[in-house]
Amino acid sequence: MANMISRERLRRRLPALWYGTWLLRTVFVFVFIAAGAAVVAAPPPAPTGLTAKDHGWDKGTAVDLVWEYPGEAALDGGFFLISYAMDLEDDFRIAGQTLGYETVYTVNGLTPGVDYYFKVVAVNSALEESEAVVSEPVAGRLQWVDGSRIWFLITVMIFCGSVVYFIRHARKGRPLKVRKIAGLEAVDEAVGRATEMGRSVIFVPGIQDMNDIQTIAGINVLSRVAQIAAENSASLEVPTTRSLVMTTARETVQSAFLRAGRPEAYDENKINYITDEQFGYVAYLQGQMVREKPAACFYMGAFFAEALILAETGNSVGAIQVAGTAMPAQLPFFVASCDYTLIGEEFFAASAYLTGSPEELGSLKGQDVGKVLVAIGIVLGVVFATLASITGPEGLNLESYHFFQGFVDYLQGTVLH
Amino acid sequence: MDLDKINVILATDCGSTTTKAILIEKVDGQFRQTYRGEAPTTVEEPFADVTIGVVNAVTEIGELAGRRLVDEQGRIIRPASDGEGCDIYISTSSAGGGLQMMVAGVIKQMTAESAKRAALGAGAIVMDVIAANDPRKPHQQIQRIRELRPDMILVSGGVDGGTTTHVVQIAELIAPAKPRPRFGNEYKMPVIYAGNRDARPLIEKTFDESVDLKIVDNLRPVLEQENLGPARDMIHDVFLEHVMAHAPGYDKLITWTDAPIMPTPGAVGNILQAIADRDGINAVGVDIGGATTDVFSVFNGTFNRTVSANLGMSYSISNVCAEATMERVLKWVHLPMEDRELRNRVKNKMIRPTTIPQSLEALVFEQAVAREALRLAYKQHKEFATTLKGVQQQRTVGDTFSQRMSGLTIVDNMAMDLLVASGGVLSHAPRMAQTVAMLMDAFEPEGVTYLAKDSIFMMPHLGVLAQVHPDAAMEVFERDCLIYLGTCVAAKGVSKPGKPCFKYRLHGSGLDEAGEIRFGELKLIPFGPGQEAELELEPARGFDLGAGSGKRVQSKARGGTVGIVLDGRGRPLVLPEDPAQCRTLMGDWVKVLGLYADSDQ
Q1: Looking only at Cα atoms, what is the longest distance across chain A?
Q2: Burial of A320 per CB tally in 10 Å (0-12, 13-18, 19+)
Q3: Touching check for A200 and chain B: CB below 8 Å?
Q4: Searching chain A, which residue's CA lies closest to the CA of residue B157?
Q5: CA of A333, closest CA in chain B: separation in Å?
Q6: What is the mean pLDDT of residues B583-595?
């Protein structure tokens, strides 16, 4: 009942309320329109002191612009629009824009040696443009050295310098320490086992062709295996999946037998092409392993699904197995089922390790220096990026954030550019 | 033979120059070595009869003991009765250069190495190793076989069911070379075949009547296992049948002995192995001679012996200085010495091998050379005493970055419990502490290690006795053979001088001492023979005393003629590069251990 009375009273007073609010709304609309008219009436002030200068240490395609802006506060939320033209009469082509507080810009993509005019316009948040300021004509000059690549130059100099240094170092007969690689040390042992047991040695150079770097690395190891097999008078068999690999393997083995002083023992019929088909090849190898029970198996090259099948079969016939591959997915299988495994880089270092030639050892050491530099870069980048994320931009210390983030940006934008 | 009735044992060792005899008697129910005598060996002309030297040495003992041991016919009286004779007579021999062998196998690092191990373990000197993967050409190998005149040849190769081709190839190198034995032109060269079972008929066919072929079980039936026993036994048999029987007077000596005559180093290995087996310890023995240095080791029951043919203190002293370099030798010297004078000293020692040092400088220098000879011999031993090569490994994914290789040394200084020294420069050092210093510097024992020396080079006699009367051999070994020098406590690890190395506490047998050893420091705690103390050790971080880095260790320290040496010099032991600094440091160590007379230090 109480609610019904109050509703009745409300209905009686409603016309008066409606007129009251109408008046208020009208006043607000007028005030708003007047204010809006005032904003439209004040475009942002024009930038001043625009200077254009050829960007140094480049190929002449960039010009640096610097200007001043008196009305920074008014440009809050706005931006500067930069454009350029070859003639003042031409239409200016937009080069880019900067945020309201940035008063420097580098225009890229210009033709070297051609004069350009540059124009900067301030644009506020209401997209109102200021008057333009135009620079004197400036041309980009082609430089001898590209400054943006200076870090690349330094890196290449250090890398190549260390390779040359270590090669010279090795040539003088000074020892270069290369840590022992168990898998390569075990080559003698594996072939020796086959000799004592009167069984054969099987070498599998992967299932890829000669254009794969892993196959090439595998062939390098084959050279060593063949030489020891020749010295021990052991039987070496090399079944391949590619005809070109077979040819390369034959030549490698032949020269190894020659080196060992036993050219007459070389038998090219033991280095065969089987099939290009992955599992046809695997089936052949499995059959051979089970029938002949080789005492040593080498898997050196690029492997896929057949890795575990081959290694498990070799393990079950009691062979010493040495594998080497850079296929990360196959490495765990090889490690678990083979006696020794060359992992990635070890596999590629095999050639230098086995031959011990100064050139190869020097290159190996030089590459190590390169790897150390990369590792230092990664560690620094991770540390500084982490510190930047801890300190800001909404974190503890904005000044520190700028320092750390600046380093990361420099690393990404300049060093790694 | 009833062992309970044995009371008097006579043993001789016929060396190249001296025949040494010892008398072991039961005193108060325990066997003790009582008398010792020696006489020149008479295997060469004009006597050409080894028994004359034996009788002379035994007669000397008899006179000392007041016991008639040799009858009117010049024979040893047996059995023992009141005041005369002995119950057992045994002998070893290294006269005429000992047992010299050539071995052959298919792969140098596999069956050929096992054959070498068998020969060395039997007490032989291995003159050469022939293998299928030998870099020498066949005609060079044949030439070498013809040049050498070994006492016998051991041929191995191939696992059972393995290669026959390679084994026959080796036999085909030896057969046409027609090697001639060292002694007795009329007898056939003994060839022991201990290889692939399947190749036996082929081997028999390859060798003609000019050799005496003996066939025994394969010494490497599978690559995973060695079976050296049958080959070693056959080497001993052939040594007696052929080598000894053709050496002057040995035919007679063989009939006198109650146990087969053994090559001297084989007997030393026997006793070391027996003591290690009985006490369940790892032991290393060394015998440094004038021309060669023998190192014996038993680690986890595996016996190994090496002969470093060019490392010795007289005939081979020049080689030691050349191999180690004079600079390195002089690092162990605390006195200023002139290089030219030292070179003269070395050459003099080489041409007059029986001379002994006459001045302090000469003694210090000789002991410095001994350190290097021992260090190099031990290094060679470590390289030889390895796990078997050619063995299939079983891996897990956990082994990705730690793929251990086979063929690694089994010699572990941290696991070494006992280090026994023998040989002139060690046994006859004027002060026992000098022997301790030489052993510690050359072998670098780690953790807790007992140091001892063979008092009168009795180990060969006891090695043969161990085959006849093991209890008597052990009793004499413990009581009279070994002179305990003390205990060495050394931490593995390196730090800066003056930094903490380990803390120690010793208590028992009237000793209660605790303290801290700093890196670079050496401390000697006198602790007499027969005494034992509890030892509590707490290594600093980065140092290991046997239980792992920084982990506490409880052990027992054994007293000796020198005492307990707490060694904080670190392992590996690194000497300063600067000679002056090195000399000062050596001077400090000499003072701490009291190596030389105070006035000389």
Answers
A1: 124
A2: buried
A3: no
A4: A196
A5: 8
A6: 93
pLDDT digit string (tens) for B403-433? 778 888 999 999 999 999 998 899 889 999 9
Residue B248 CB-density burial (10 A; 0-12 exposed, 13-18 middle, 19+ buried): buried
Q: Which two tokens stand for residue B115?
A: 């054959």
Q: How far is B120 from chain A (nearest CA, A)?
A: 22
Separation of alpha carbons B86 and B78, rounded Å: 5
Cβ neighbour number for residue A220 with a 10 Å cutoff = 21
Q: How far apart are CA B124 and CA B109, in angstroms?
A: 19
Chain A CA closest to residue B165? A198
Among B114, B133, B394, the residue to mutate for chain A (most A Cβ within 10 A): B133
Is A326 near chain B, with CB under 8 Å? no
Distance CA A68, CA A46 (A): 9
Please report, in angstroms and rounded to a whole number, the separation of the first and last CA atoms in chain A: 81
A195 → closest Cβ in B106, B161, B392: B106
Neighbours of A344 (CB within 10 A): 14
What domains are there in chain A, each with its CATH number? 48-144 (2.60.40.10), 148-171+360-415 (no CATH), 182-356 (3.40.50)
**Number of domains chain B contains:** 3
CB B487 within 8 A of CB B557: yes
Q: Give residue-wise pLDDT tens across range A300-316.
A: 999 999 999 999 999 99
Q: What is the pLDDT of residues B427-440, one digit of tens each?
A: 889 999 999 999 99
What is the spatial distance between Cα B301 and Cα B283, in angstroms, rounded to a whole number?
A: 10
How far separated are the first and last CA of chain B, in Å rounded? 56
In this predicted structure, the answer to whether residue A157 has a pLDDT above a threshold of 70 is yes
Alpha-carbon gap: B566 to the closest alpha carbon of chain A (Å)? 35
Choose among B165, B390, B393: nearest Cβ to A192: B390
Same domain, B301 and B447: yes
- What average pLDDT does the structure give for chain A? 87
Same domain, B158 and B181: yes
Question: Does B230 share its domain with B375?
Answer: no
**Which residue, among B19, B29, B21, B15, has the nearest Cα to B472 in the 3D structure?**
B29
Give ipTM to 2 decimals.
0.82
Pairing type for strands B99-105 and B152-155 reads parallel
CB-CB: which of A180, A196, A335 is closest to B107?
Answer: A196
Query: Cβ–Cβ of A195/B220 closer than 8 Å?
Result: no
List for chain A the helix, strand, coil content (%; round to 5): 55, 15, 30
Tell me whether A339 touches chain B (CB under 8 Å): yes
A183 burial (CB, 10 Å; 0-12 / 13-18 / 19+) is: buried
Residues B80 and B113 in one domain: no
3-state secondary structure of B390: coil
Q: Which of B100, B89, B140, B144 is nearest to B123 (CA)?
A: B100
Chain B contact set for A193 (CB, 8 A) = 110, 223, 390, 392
Name the residue range of residue B291's domain: 285-389+404-600
Check whether residue B302 and residue B431 sit in a common domain: yes
The Cα–Cα gap between A77 and A114 comes to 35
- CA nearest B101: which of B123, B126, B130? B126
Phi, psi (5° rounding) for residue B37? -145, 160
Looking at residue B56, which CATH number applies to its domain? 3.30.420.40
Residues with Cβ < 8 Å from A239, sequence gap 6 or more? A202, A204, A272, A274, A281, A284, A285, A288
Strands A133-134 and A115-123: antiparallel
Cβ of residue A90 closer than 8 Å to a chain B Cβ:
no
Q: Is residue B309 part of a domain?
A: yes
Neighbour count for residue A154 (Cβ, 10 Å) = 12
